[in-house]
Known about the structure:
Oligomer: heterodimer
Strand order of the largest sheet of chain B: 6-9-10-3-11-12
Number of domains of chain B: 1
Bound molecules: adenosine-5'-triphosphate, magnesium ion
Radius of gyration of chain A: 21 Å
CATH superfamily of chain B: P-loop containing nucleotide triphosphate hydrolases
Number of strands of chain A: 17
Distance between the termini of chain B: 40 Å
Radius of gyration of chain B: 18 Å
Largest sheet of chain B: 6 strands, mixed
Order of helices and strands of chain A: HEEEHEEEEEEEEEEEEEEHHH
Number of strands of chain B: 12
Structural class of chain B: alpha/beta
Amino acid sequence: xxxxxxxxxxxxxxxxxxxxxxxxxxxxxxxxxxxxxxxxxxxxxxxxxxxxxxxxxxxxxxxxxxxxxxxxxxxxxxxxxxxxxxxxxxxxxxxxxxxxxxxxxxxxxxxxxxxxxxxxxxxxxxxxxxxxxxxxxxxxxxxxxxxxxxxxxxxxxxxxxxxxxxxxxxxxxxxxxxxxxxxxxxxxxxxxxxxxxxxxxxxxxxxxxxxxxxxxxxxxxxxxxxxxxxxxxxxxxxxxxxxxxxxxxxxxxxxxxxxxxxxxxxxxxxxxxxxxxxxxxxxxxxxxxxxxxxxxxxxxxxxxxxxxxxxxxxxxxxxxxxxxxxxxxxxxxxxxxxxxxxxxxxxxxxxxxxxxxxxxxxxxxxxxxxxxxxxxxxxxxxxxxxxxxx
Amino acid sequence: xxxxxxxxxxxxxxxxxxxxxxxxxxxxxxxxxxxxxxxxxxxxxxxxxxxxxxxxxxxxxxxxxxxxxxxxxxxxxxxxxxxxxxxxxxxxxxxxxxxxxxxxxxxxxxxxxxxxxxxxxxxxxxxxxxxxxxxxxxxxxxxxxxxxxxxxxxxxxxxxxxxxxxxxxxxxxxxxxxxxxxxxxxxxxxxxxxxxxxxxxxxxxxxxxxxxxxxxxxxxxxxxxxxxxxxxxxxxxxxxxxxxxxxxxxxxx
Lengths: 390, 253
Ligand SMILES: Nc1ncnc2c1ncn2[C@@H]1O[C@H](COP(=O)(O)OP(=O)(O)OP(=O)(O)O)[C@@H](O)[C@H]1O
Ligand SMILES: [Mg+2]
C-alpha cells in the first residue's frame, strides 16, 4: 500500500519538478525576465551584489586578460561571431547566461585533436584588472574522440564577469577540467558550465572556490550517448561576507551512464554563505545508470550559513544505483577531545580535523600539483581564523 | 616517578533537569609503578571518572582534586594533561576522517615530546608497535579509527600507549569487546608498558577475565559513583564468584 502511495506522490512531484529542472531555454535575452530574487533558481543569491549582471548593466568583452599555456598539438583559435554559441547543445536557461552569450563578440576555443594524449595540463588563466565594467565571455573546450587531456582554468584578480563555458567530450575521450576561482575580495562571477559527455567518454570536473565577493557557478552535465561517466568534485572555503554558490545538474539523458558528485565546503567568519544545489534527473531512457551526489559542510565559526539541497528525480525504475547525502556540521567535540587527549594543542587539533575533512576529497583529484596547492590553500585559509583562535 | 592522587572527586553532568551528580567523592591513590583495577557495574560512573581525569568538557568538577606527581591536573587543559604524562585509552575511540594514523601519531608524539621524533627510528617504532599489537603496517595509512573493528580500535589505543609513553595510563574497558586472542595481545601490551620504570595503570573493567593476564596491585569495587570497597587480587576473585550484588545492596542502604 505504502509503495503505491509513494509512486503516486513521486509521479506528481516529477511533473512539478520536471518543469523546474527544465525551464524553457532561450538565446533571446528578453525571453528571461529580470529576476526578483523570489524565483527558485535565484532565491539564495544576493542579487544586489551582482552589480547588475542579472538586470541590464552593459556587458563588454574586456578588459580581461586570458592567457593560454598550450602543449603541442592543442589548437585554440578565437572564433568571431555567434557560430559556436550553443555548440554543445546548451541553451541558456537564465538571464545572465543569455546576456553573456549575446554580449560576447567571439568565442575562445580549446580543441584537443582526436586520438591525442596531452601529457601536461593545458592552462588557462583569466585575470580581471579591476576596471569597473562588467564582462561577458564565452569559451568552448572540445576533447575530440579518444583524446585525453587536463585543462586548468584559473580565475583571479578583480572583475565582474558573466561567462559560459561549453565543454564537449567526444566519444571515448577522457577530459579533466579544473576550475579554480581564486578572485580578489571584490570580484563577482556568475559562471555557467555545460558539458556534453560522449559515448563511453569520461569527464572529471574539479571545482575549487576560494576567493571573490560573490561566486555563483552553474554546472550541468548531460550525456550524448550511453556509457559516459561524469565525476564532479568540488571544494570551497567561504570567508566572512563571501557568497559561494554551486548549482549542479546532472541530466542522465542516456542509458548506462554514471555520475558521482561530491562537494565539500568550509565556512568561517560573519556572513559567510554557501549554497549547494544538487539536481539529478534520471530520464526514462536512462536505464542502468548509477548516480551519487554528496555535499558536506563544516561550519568553523558562528555567523555562517550553509544551504544544501540535494534533489534526485527518477523517471525510470531500471537503475543500478542512486543515492545522495548532505550534511552540515560544526567541529565535532569528540574528535577534538580525542586529539587533545593525545597532547595535541587545540588549534592544531582543529587544523587536523579540517585538513582531514578535505583530505579524502583531495585524494580523489589525482592531479599531483593541484593536490599540494590545495593543501597549502586550505592551510592559508585556516591561518585566517581557526589557527588564530585562542 | 608517577603518582596519581584522586581526592574526594565529585563530578556532575548537565541534564535537561539540571546538573546530575555522578561521582560522589572518589578517593584513590595510584602509587609509583602500581596497577589498580576499578571494577563496577554498568552506569556506576567508571567512564565518568576516566573522562573527568582527562578533562572531557562534558563533565563538571564540583569538588575534590586530582594530581599527577603533585601537579594539579584539574587546572590544566586536556592537551596539557596529556603532556604532563596522562594517557586515556577510551572505551569508544573516536573516528577522525581524513587524518592518517601515521600523521596522528607523529603529531601527538611531537606535541608530547616538544620536538619531532627522529624520522628513521620513528617509522621503525611505529611499525614495531603496530606489529606487536597484531595490526598490519597498512593501518598507518588509514584514517584514525575509521572503519576499524572494535578490537582494532582497542589495539590501536594500545599502540598509542606504547609510542606516547605516558607516566600514567587510564584504560577504560580496553578489554571489552575483545575475543580471547585479542585480549591476550592487549594484555601483553599493558604488561610491556608496566615493565617500564615507574608507570602507573588504572585499569577500568567490567569483567574479571583481563585480571588473569594483568595482575593488579589493588582492586577497587566501584558502585554508584564511589569506591565501595578496596582490596587485593582476592577481591576480584570474590567478584568473579558472586558478582556485584553484595556491593550494590550495601550501597542502596
Ligand atoms: N548527559 C547525561 N545525562 C544524564 N545522565 C548521564 C549523562 N551522562 C552520563 N550519565 C549517567 O552517568 C552514569 C555513569 O555513566 P558512566 O558512563 O560513567 O558509567 P560506566 O560505569 O562507565 O558504565 P559502563 O560500564 O556501561 O561503561 C550513568 O548512569 C549515565 O546514565
Ligand atoms: Mg564506561
